[in-house]
Amino acid sequence: MTLDIFSVVGGKEATGGAAYDSINPSRVDEVVARVHLADAGAFAAACRTAAAAQAEWARVPAPVRGRVIASVGRLVEANAEALARLVTREIGKPYAEALGEVREIVDTCDFFLGEGRRLYGQTVPSEMPDKSLFTFRVPVGVAAVVTAGNFPVAVPSWYLVPALLCGNAVVWKPAEYAAASAHALYRLLAAAGLPDGVLNLVLADGEQTFAGLETALEEGTVHKVGFTGSSGVGRRIGELCGRHLQSPCLELGGKNPMVVMPDADLDLAVEGALFAGFGTAGQRCTSLGTVIVHESVHGEFLARYTAAVAGAEIGDPAGEVLCGPLLDHRFAERYEEYLGWIEPHHTVVSGPVGRITPENPRGGFTGSGGLYYHPVVVDGVRAGDRLFLEETFGPIVGVTSFGTLEEAIALANRPGYGLSSSIYTTDPKAAFRFRAGVGAGMVSVNNSTSGAEAHLPFGGNGKSGNGSRQSGVWVLDQFTRWQAMNWDYSGRLQKAQMDVAEIVPDPGFRL
């Protein structure tokens, strides 16, 4: 069944707009949803609607807003299997992973439902008598949230849940190739009792969204921008927001390194590299980019890794597979370009390269008619190669070697991204030296580069973001502003730093 999906603004479906077909990438002739796209004017109008609704929502007591978030969590939990099946059908994510993604929404709601009672400010002592100082968290206003489709429901919840909890209104623009999943999540949020206009869903392409966002910023109807996507688009959004003296929340790409020390448990490292490199078909911002292996165990690790890749189940995402298809035709085309970065000095150690077809088969393959690609492991990458330096959004992992930990850290930092990183070692000293030296916002020890928990800060540095963080209490700084208040009840004007009592010591006192 093909769904008709429209934007929803102020609680009402928008009509018209150019049609976009969201396909099932595991069966490309199947249209999951006909998505009716809005234009820049509709996006800007949605921001005006959100601005009109925000003040009333902010007046709802924060603990009550927390109960709304609790309801979202219970609704998602009750609909978990249906939502996960839709995610699998629309973007080809293996069902087990899709179910885990839905669970992440529940975890996020479970964490933030209590934050409605913990949006703490402080009472601060004054330097003057009969005067009190206070700090308060206040909502920023309207948040415009633009998300990618590789995590079509979990990552949006990282923005939507805290933004709404803090008293903001939201205009959410999901990826059009994941619009059906986004629309389903919107309906669950609306069913929790959100007033019309507090959460608005706008379906649009990238250029119309950017133009609409530019208008909204000029009109003053957007006060925070959240964006998950490529580093290139993130730069454009950062520049746009900077012109309006705003700091966006940017969660961008990664070239995530995994260091394998000579004392590593190689079987564990292989398991981590398999999941990090090829889970979600390598289409995570935290996917493994390059394995940096100590020269003494390089050969053994590579042999075990290639054997694991060869034995991994690839195919129908409804089954128990390591990975399914690429997300959409645009990602398949881009991945073909990345495969062109394989150079003569590289060695492809994983077998066939390219799309899985009857002419280019894979043993044990369970898919049919989809955007399925062979997982690729490339040995011999060098620090100057594009394959080493740039994000490759798809099932391809590079491998290189190192001699000292300092060299490994330098290689890990060389691409200039700074999202996730990993080290496999049994030496605590090596683990802490790596943590101190690597530029990534997230570090795993004896674990893969992928995986996030709802109560830990998520985000990157360098090309991976502007230092903003999602998840846990840290994201509250994205969706609130600090307000300071002083209350002087002395009955007279007391001037700070001027009318301060002074107690004079005796500096010459000696025992």
TrEMBL record:
Active site: 251
Keywords, in A-Z order: NAD, Oxidoreductase
Organism: Planomonospora sphaerica
Protein name, per record: aldehyde dehydrogenase (NAD(+))
A Pfam match: Aldedh
GO molecular function, one term: aldehyde dehydrogenase (NAD+) activity
Oligomeric form and interacting partners: Homotetramer.
Top-level class of the enzyme under EC nomenclature: oxidoreductase
